[in-house]
Amino acid sequence: MLHVHHFGDDNGTPVVALHGLTGHGGRFRALAEKHLPGVRVHAPDLRGHGRSTTYPPWTFEQHAADIIEVLDDLGLDRAVITGHSLGATIAVHLARLAPDRVDRLILLDPGLALPPPLAEERATAALDPPTFDTPEQAAGERALYWPPEAAHLVDDEVRDHLTRHDDGRWRWRYSIPMVAAGYSELARPAVTPPAGTNTTLVVALRSKAVPPGYADMCGDELKSDFRLVELDCGHQIHLERPAEAAALISGTA
């Protein structure tokens, strides 16, 4: 059902890495290969993204069930689970659905409790996705959107995530209906991992993805199993601050 990318040490500690909305698992390649020695990263293209199935439902619960299937296919009883944005929110729902499958959670600026008017605005905009005359034009758009620290990764993004459609134009490889539905899911009330889940919440201080009060919710539920890390960066933590993100994922920070 899901296409899975595999990076890093073949015999390393298994980590399952979940990307954000409109992304793909290949975005964890550089993080794994340059900053996570001794770690084997399994990074699926989430349902509706990349080379995975595009079929609904696109709920948090279905995404979590998909990741359980990935764990089963990999022969993993448990794994470290990390996620960025939508992927981090799915990781929370995975922990709630199957807490015994999660060793640790590292949540990189999860998308939570998006205000309904903003969710509607973004879902509507998603119905008219950007298209490009050439891959070079797409690369230029991506370079403007990504932090400067990730500029060297744009060529990989174009190679892995851009596809040409029947009309001859180029577009990023994701399902348009899935993105619209994804914003509806992101408008759901925020929930925390269940008690007993070793959780690190990483908040990007120049982002508004994590709503005020969510860290307190997690602390109240998880108590000594919870750690809050705040980084002075934008939303794309793993691209802008890869060394810090990797240290948190590996457990060395």
List the helices and strands and how they pair.
Elements: E1 4-8, E2 13-18, H1 29-35, E3 39-44, H2 60-74, E4 79-84, H3 86-97, E5 102-108, H4 116-126, H5 135-145, H6 154-161, E6 162-164, E7 170-172, H7 176-186, E8 199-204, H8 214-222, E9 226-231, H9 237-240, H10 242-250
Parallel strand pairs: 2-3, 2-4, 4-5, 5-8, 8-9
Antiparallel strand pairs: 1-3, 6-7
Helix pairs in contact: 2-3, 4-7, 5-6
Give a quick precis of the structure.
By secondary structure, the protein is of the alpha/beta class. The chain is built from ten helices and nine strands.
Description of the structure:
There is one protein chain. The protein is α/β, with parallel strands linked by helices. It has one domain (4-124, 176-250): Rossmann fold (3-Layer(aba) Sandwich), CATH 3.40.50. The protein has helices at residues 29-35, 60-74, 86-97, 116-126, 135-145, 154-161, 176-186, 214-222, 237-240, 242-250; strands at 4-8, 13-18, 39-44, 79-84, 102-108, 162-164, 170-172, 199-204, 226-231. The chain has a 7-stranded mixed beta sheet, with helices on both faces. It has a two-stranded antiparallel sheet with strand order 6-7. Helix 3 (86-97) links the parallel strand 4 (79-84) and strand 5. Helix 2 (60-74) packs across helix 3, helix 4 (116-126) runs antiparallel to helix 7 and helix 5 (135-145) crosses helix 6 (154-161). The radius of gyration is 17 Å and the shape is globular. It starts with a strand and ends with a helix. This is Alpha/beta hydrolase. It comes from Paractinoplanes pyxinae. Keywords: Hydrolase.
